[in-house]
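Private note to self, pasted from the team thread so I don't lose it. Backbone tokens:
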């Protein structure tokens, strides 16, 4: 029963992660050029700041009509998601969470010939009730956004971390994982339970998967195993080509469940 319940919760987390990864961050990959040319948020045009504020406001109201007016019909993400897929997933998430709160901070911006490129950090929080349990969602997404006129047209996620908890005492964890690694390098994914377990049983599982558009809408599931230590420790093999990966983990104890997902960018 624990395995089935936890696997269902992880699948729901994957859907939420999909939305969190794209609702606020749209851009093309500009590499070091963006870093060299980026300007302070204090100098950003009023119009750019207003667009970011309007997106936050529309998301907080769960106003799909307004969201559609702010996104280009030609929108596509660096992960391969198209506009219709984005809005479909967003509507699914809003059916589950009625109180999501979005706060976006402008980190830097750059003037381009056709508009602006902005780097932002979005924090998302929310709660929902399911089968008498409270489920809490927390996420941070750092991304680049490309604006053409008054539309968002493309995205690249630079980093993302999502945590989903339920129960009265979900495991408090520390996650150790790099945001970026080079092609040919393996790396570690450690999710450590902060408090002593004593004689309490702990179950969990960690997975790694390449980020592709079809995985947003059909996320993988996890089968739990009893753990012999206070956390999960996974060595991730090296990749042969540049790609993005999701590293996900679930930890279950008698007091609750904690699920985390982090994005790792593998670059040349």
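Design output:
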């Amino acid at each position: 029963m624990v395995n089935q319940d936890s696997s269902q919760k992880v699948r729901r987390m994957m859907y939420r992660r999909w939305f969190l990864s794209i609702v606020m961050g749209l851009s093309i990959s500009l590499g070091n050029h963006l870093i060299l040319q980026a300007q302070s948020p204090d100098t950003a045009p009023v119009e750019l700041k207003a667009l970011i504020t309007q997106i936050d406001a529309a998301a907080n109201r769960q106003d799909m009509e307004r969201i559609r007016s702010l996104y280009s019909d030609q929108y596509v993400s660096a992960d391969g998601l198209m506009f219709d897929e984005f809005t479909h997933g967003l509507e699914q998430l809003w059916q589950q969470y009625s109180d999501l709160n979005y706060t976006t901070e402008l980190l830097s911006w750059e003037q381009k010939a056709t508009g602006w490129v902005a780097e932002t950090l979005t924090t998302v929080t929310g709660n929902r009730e399911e089968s008498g349990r409270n489920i809490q969602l927390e996420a941070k997404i750092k991304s680049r956004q490309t604006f053409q006129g008054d539309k968002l047209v493309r995205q690249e996620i630079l980093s993302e971390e999502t945590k989903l908890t339920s129960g009265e005492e979900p495991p408090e964890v520390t996650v150790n994982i790099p945001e970026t690694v080079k092609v040919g390098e393996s790396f570690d994914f450690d999710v450590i339970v902060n408090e002593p377990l004593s004689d309490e049983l702990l179950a969990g599982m960690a997975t790694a998967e390449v980020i592709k558009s079809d995985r947003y809408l059909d996320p993988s599931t996890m089968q739990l195993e009893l753990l012999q230590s206070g956390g999960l420790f996974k060595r991730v093999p090296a990749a042969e080509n540049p790609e993005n990966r999701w590293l996900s983990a679930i930890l279950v104890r008698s007091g609750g469940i904690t699920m985390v997902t982090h994005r790792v960018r593998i670059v040349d």
